[in-house]
């Protein structure tokens, strides 16, 4: 920052200030909005005041209307200034300026606030007294300031004896303390813009704690960029880009905390050096007034802006030195996005589309001037421009602005000084009224904006400006450099809206809609009355082009009248309307669907929901054990990862203006069951009764769970009663689920069936006894007896109920959609039934692969089959429409398999689950880290798993002794082992093991072939 100092202080005539304004987490991340609504990424225009007395004295003699603080603020408002930066101190001393008291005080803050201006105080920081400078910042905020700026420059570099190598530590101490004292206030810091010249300055430490960066770009003193604003901005861009990149992946540990230095990257809001015709000190000269406009316009158009979303803030140094024409240009430029302001649209040629062979010329880069050789094109807009010699007009450069506010715009073009420039460069402008060809004289007015004319543009990107190559003169060139559109305020009132309608949407809301007919409006006004004919009071001011509005906060059962009109700077249109609507009476809430209890595996997501009716808006408050859950105020409550602390009673209170009602309780229990995939019948929703299970089964669209006490619970589709087990079933020891029916084995070996029976699948053959396994297909059923024979019944359309003759020695069975599998004691697989897939094509699911041996487990899907070998590998055959028929090559530790409609599952010896095949409903999307699984089942399009909970006491069922042989059936779990042990006398010291076998997840036959002793005692052990 150049501060003009009295002649007695010539040793410090020139000072450079660069401001870093921003508190964020790096480029591309929205900054934190501070007190007063200050958005570091959207500051708009600001101005710096060094001597307040000079600023209020006709702004240094340049603006006669400014004679005191109030007229100064009015002048700022009229020129679009949004914030002031006033000098408050130098180092650790308050600055009086020309007064006998500190010039930054609560009085100037209050005057600025009364005129709706933000005011920041700045301190020329030295770093020689950190405690004193912290006190300066405290003072500024205690006066009511909206922000504070550390004007930190050369005094903070290591060549200063009070800084040396301590610059980073001192900057951290200073800035962190101010931020700690004022955590919600806007902070900025002001270093040099060209970082590569000032590598010892603590940019990182200042940037980390501040909210934005305002580099002081003074191109008038930078001969390397030919004193042009575009060149100075480009040079700054390069430096900040390189600095930003150097921070990627860097961090430090400060006071025990890891600091990531990308948090020092903040939005830039550069400062422009604006000295008028009578600079007060030597070494400073007037800058051309057009430099003010070029500076801000190129910030807006800069294709290489080092702030995400482009530059949206700028300020000017210093207030009392701006000349009259410079003030006019400060007023004319726009930067930042604010309601009620239609910004200038500025486009550099780097953002244009090019057709044909145009010649690019670089003018500025990294502090250097390039040009085309003559040295006369230093006044280009931006860092390059395009030229083309005379052609047919087919080659062009097209600038396409995005119009937010439809209306009239003055269109300007920019060109540098070139000897070969055309005096009739053709510009083809496409606007709302068609196209217009304008011939521009590019031999004159170089380095400034040249008016092409005023044109009307619709909102959007339908309009454009093309620079054509069809110049008139031989040897001349057309130049494409920059385009600017300036909104022209309308001179006539807009057309009125029509087709206004009013519709009540709740007891307190009425929705309005209308047709917008205006092309030059800047907004719309909605007015309301509570009686026909008025009086009408304005209730909403809306932006242009709106066609809807909802009026809220109304009284129930009352009639309202509405009108709508369009407005612009020239006035208001006639009203549309009036129309009327009556709000309905309030209806208290009623619960239509209560939240239901859930049983879930720990770590899974739980979701409770309620359906309620009543007058909107309905408000929801979920309760846990009777206490309100903070933030749980929607109709759906989601618990992302349930743990034991989440188990308990949930309810929800629904309220509106008419009353409140609380739902029934819903129990959340932790269970060992998880389900994923298709949930159209809630088969992937686990019943609250599905706790403490020892087995699960998945049917087409329903599931079964087996309790250790023999009860069976079902959930999912129950259209045929398949989820409703017989009331007297209290001794089930194994279960199976088919398409629409269910099976269970009683402790005595009988089979019970329920659900659909349209194909006889529930007609258990009379006399069927001694069953150790059941399986259910879509419409048929299987049973395995203890003697190794198989019985089938139900649908036999594909031979699935015709057990192959002489099939014996079977140890396991599986039922697919319309086919069956049987595992023999010798490790081979028998298969019968359908061999077609869902399309009617041959699949071969009932043809076991040749040479398949050493099998220990089987499963059958709709049209595919699975087998797991003793070595842990899986063999699949049959349909492969979704990859279900090819097992993963890396799968080598399987202990069991399961098959769904078109997907496959394997349980590993470590308790994990591998899924492959169809996954469109998430049936294969099992949660990461799923472990300790002891059972897995596949439905048509869903998956169910059972995780080990407490291991149940092993049970010996159906004990029998015949001809010196003892046998029994045991209930087993996968991934557990079982041993039948005996004693001839209970007093014997040790139990003797007869056999040890892995569990199969169902029933298993064990025996003692030599039970001839007069008495023998048996027990079953599991691990």
C-alpha Rg (nearest Å): 41 Å
Low-confidence stretches: 2-29
**SS summary, helix count:** 10
Percentage of residues in strands: 35-45%
Quick summary:
The protein has 1023 residues and is mainly beta. The chain has ten helices and 72 strands. The strands form 21 sheets. Strands 2, 3, 4, 5, 6, 7, 9, 12 and 13 form a nine-stranded mixed β-sheet that branches.
Give a written overview of the molecule.
- This protein is mainly beta and 1023 residues long.
- It is 10% helix and 38% strand.
- Strands 2, 3, 4, 5, 6, 7, 9, 12 and 13 form a nine-stranded mixed sheet that branches.
- Residues 2-29 have low confidence and may be disordered.
List the helices and strands and how they pair.
Layout lengths: L18 E4 L21 E6 L2 H4 L2 H4 L7 H10 L2 E10 L2 E2 L11 H9 L3 E8 L4 H13 L4 E6 L14 H15 L4 E4 L13 H7 L2 E3 L1 E2 L11 H19 L3 E4 L2 E4 L10 E3 L15 H13 L11 E5 L6 H9 L12 E4 L4 E3 L3 E4 L1 E2 L2 E2 L14 E6 L6 E4 L7 E8 L10 E7 L2 E7 L8 E9 L6 E5 L8 E4 L1 E6 L10 E9 L2 E7 L7 E7 L7 E7 L4 E4 L7 E10 L2 E2 L3 E7 L7 E4 L4 E3 L5 E4 L1 E3 L5 E6 L2 E2 L7 E4 L8 E9 L2 E4 L3 E5 L2 E5 L17 E4 L3 E5 L5 E5 L15 E6 L3 E6 L4 E5 L15 E6 L3 E6 L4 E5 L15 E6 L3 E6 L4 E5 L21 E6 L3 E6 L4 E5 L15 E6 L3 E6 L4 E5 L15 E6 L3 E6 L8 E7 L2 E7 L5 E7 L8 E7 ...
Parallel strand pairs: 2-3, 2-13, 3-5, 5-6, 6-7, 9-12, 12-13, 37-45
Antiparallel strand pairs: 1-8, 3-4, 10-11, 14-27, 15-20, 16-19, 17-18, 19-26, 20-25, 21-24, 21-27, 22-23, 22-25, 28-29, 29-32, 30-31, 30-33, 33-34, 33-35, 36-39, 38-42, 40-41, 40-43, 43-44, 43-45, 46-66, 47-48, 48-49, 50-51, 51-52, 53-54, 54-55, 56-57, 57-58, 59-60, 60-61, 62-63, 63-64, 65-66, 67-68, ...
Helix pairs in contact: 5-6, 6-7, 9-10
């Amino acid at each position: 920052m150049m501060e003009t100092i009295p002649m007695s202080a010539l040793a410090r005539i020139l000072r450079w200030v660069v401001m870093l304004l921003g508190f964020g987490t790096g480029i591309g991340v929205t900054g934190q909005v501070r007190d007063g609504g200050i958005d570091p990424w959207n500051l708009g225009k600001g101005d710096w005041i060094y001597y307040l007395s000079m600023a209020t004295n006709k702004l240094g003699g340049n603006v006669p209307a400014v004679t005191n603080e109030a007229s100064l603020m009015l002048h700022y408002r009229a020129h679009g200034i949004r914030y002031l930066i006033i000098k408050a101190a130098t180092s650790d001393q308050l600055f009086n300026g020309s007064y006998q008291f500190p010039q930054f005080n609560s009085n100037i803050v209050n005057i600025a606030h009364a005129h709706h201006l933000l005011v920041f105080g700045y301190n020329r920081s030295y770093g020689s007294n950190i405690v004193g400078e912290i006190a300066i910042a405290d003072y500024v905020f205690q006066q009511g300031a909206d922000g504070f700026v550390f004007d930190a420059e050369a005094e903070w570099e290591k060549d200063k004896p009070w800084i040396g190598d301590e610059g980073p530590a001192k900057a951290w101490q200073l800035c962190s303390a101010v931020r700690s004292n004022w955590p919600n206030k806007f902070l900025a810091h002001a270093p040099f813009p060209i970082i590569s010249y000032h590598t010892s300055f603590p940019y990182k430490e200042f940037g980390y704690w501040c909210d934005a960066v305002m580099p002081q770009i003074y191109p008038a003193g930078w001969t390397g960029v030919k004193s042009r604003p575009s060149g100075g901005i480009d040079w700054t861009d390069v430096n900040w880009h390189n600095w930003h990149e150097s921070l990627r992946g860097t961090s430090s540990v400060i006071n025990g905390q890891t600091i990531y230095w990308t948090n020092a990257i903040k939005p830039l809001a550069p400062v422009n050096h604006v000295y008028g015709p009578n600079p007060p000190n030597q070494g400073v000269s007037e800058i051309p007034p057009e430099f003010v406009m070029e500076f801000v316009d190129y910030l807006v158009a800069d294709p290489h802006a080092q702030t995400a979303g482009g530059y949206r803030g700028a300020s000017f140094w210093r207030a009392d030195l701006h000349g009259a024409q410079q003030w006019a240009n400060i007023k004319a430029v726009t930067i930042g996005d604010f309601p009620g302001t239609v910004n200038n649209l500025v486009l550099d040629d780097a953002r244009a589309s090019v057709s044909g062979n145009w010649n690019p010329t670089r003018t500025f880069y990294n502090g250097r001037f390039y040009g085309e050789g003559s040295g006369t094109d230093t006044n280009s807009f931006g860092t390059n421009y395009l030229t083309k010699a005379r052609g047919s007009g087919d080659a062009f450069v097209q600038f396409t602005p995005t119009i937010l506010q439809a209306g009239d715009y003055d269109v300007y073009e920019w060109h540098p000084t070139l000897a070969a420039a055309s005096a009739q460069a053709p510009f083809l402008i496409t606007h709302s009224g068609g196209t217009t060809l304008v011939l521009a004289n590019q031999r004159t007015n170089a380095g400034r904006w040249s008016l092409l004319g005023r044109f009307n543009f619709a909102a959007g990107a339908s309009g454009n400006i093309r620079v054509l190559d069809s110049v008139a003169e031989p040897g001349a060139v057309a130049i494409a450099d920059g385009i600017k559109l300036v909104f022209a305020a309308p001179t006539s009132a807009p057309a009125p809206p029509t087709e206004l309608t009013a519709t009540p949407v709740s007891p307190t809301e009425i929705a309005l809609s209308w047709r917008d007919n205006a092309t030059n409006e800047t907004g719309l006004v909605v007015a309301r009355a509570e009686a026909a004919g008025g009086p009408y009071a304005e209730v909403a001011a809306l932006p242009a082009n709106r066609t809807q509005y909802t009026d809220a906060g109304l009284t129930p059962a009352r009639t309202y009248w509405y009108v709508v009109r369009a407005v612009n700077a020239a006035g208001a249109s006639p009203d549309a309307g009036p129309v009327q609507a009556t709000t309905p009476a309030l209806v208290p809430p009623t619960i239509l669907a209560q939240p239901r209890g859930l049983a879930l595996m720990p770590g899974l997501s739980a979701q409770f929901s309620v359906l309620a009716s009543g007058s909107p808006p309905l408000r929801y408050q979920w309760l846990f054990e009777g206490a309100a859950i903070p933030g749980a105020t929607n109709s759906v409550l989601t618990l992302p990862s349930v743990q034991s602390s989440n188990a308990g009673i949930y309810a929800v209170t629904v309220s509106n203006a008419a009353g409140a009602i609380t739902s029934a309780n819903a129990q959340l229990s932790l269970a060992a069951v998880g389900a994923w995939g298709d949930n159209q019948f809630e088969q992937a929703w686990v019943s609250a009764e599905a706790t403490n299970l020892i087995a699960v089964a998945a049917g087409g669209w329903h599931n079964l769970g087996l309790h250790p006490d023999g009860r069976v619970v079902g959930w999912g589709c129950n259209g045929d009663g398949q989820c409703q087990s017989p009331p007297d079933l209290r001794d089930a020891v194994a279960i199976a689920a088919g398409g629409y029916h269910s099976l269970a084995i009683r402790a005595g070996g009988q089979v019970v069936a329920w659900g659909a029976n349209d194909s006889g699948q529930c007609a258990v053959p009379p006399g069927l006894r001694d069953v150790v396994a059941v399986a259910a297909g879509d419409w048929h059923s299987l049973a395995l007896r203890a003697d190794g024979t198989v019985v089938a019944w139900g649908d036999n359309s594909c031979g699935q109920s015709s057990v192959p003759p002489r099939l014996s020695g079977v140890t396991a069975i599986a039922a697919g959609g319309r086919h069956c599998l049987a595992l023999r004691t010798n490790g081979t697989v028998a298969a019968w039934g359908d061999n077609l897939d869902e399309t009617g094509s041959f699949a071969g699911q009932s043809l076991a692969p040749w040479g398949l041996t050493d099998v220990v487990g089987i499963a059958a899907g709709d049209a595919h089959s699975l087998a797991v070998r003793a070595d842990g590998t899986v063999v699949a055959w049959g349909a492969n429409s979704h990859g279900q028929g090819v097992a993963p090559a890396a799968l080598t530790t399987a202990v069991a398999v399961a098959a769904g409609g078109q997907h496959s599952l394997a349980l590993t010896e470590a308790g994990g689950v591998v899924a492959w095949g169809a996954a469109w409903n998430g049936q294969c999307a099992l949660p990461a880290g799923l472990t300790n699984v002891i059972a897995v089942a596949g439905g048509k399009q869903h998956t169910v798993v059972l995780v080990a909970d407490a291991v149940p006491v092993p049970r010996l069922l159906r004990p029998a002794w015949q001809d010196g042989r003892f046998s029994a059936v045991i209930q087993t779990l996968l991934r557990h082992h079982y041993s039948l042990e005996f004693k001839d006398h209970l007093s014997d010291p040790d139990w003797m093991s007869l056999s040890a076998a892995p569990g199969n997840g169902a029933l298993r036959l064990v025996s003692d072939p030599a039970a001839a002793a007069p008495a023998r005692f048996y027990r079953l052990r599991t691990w």
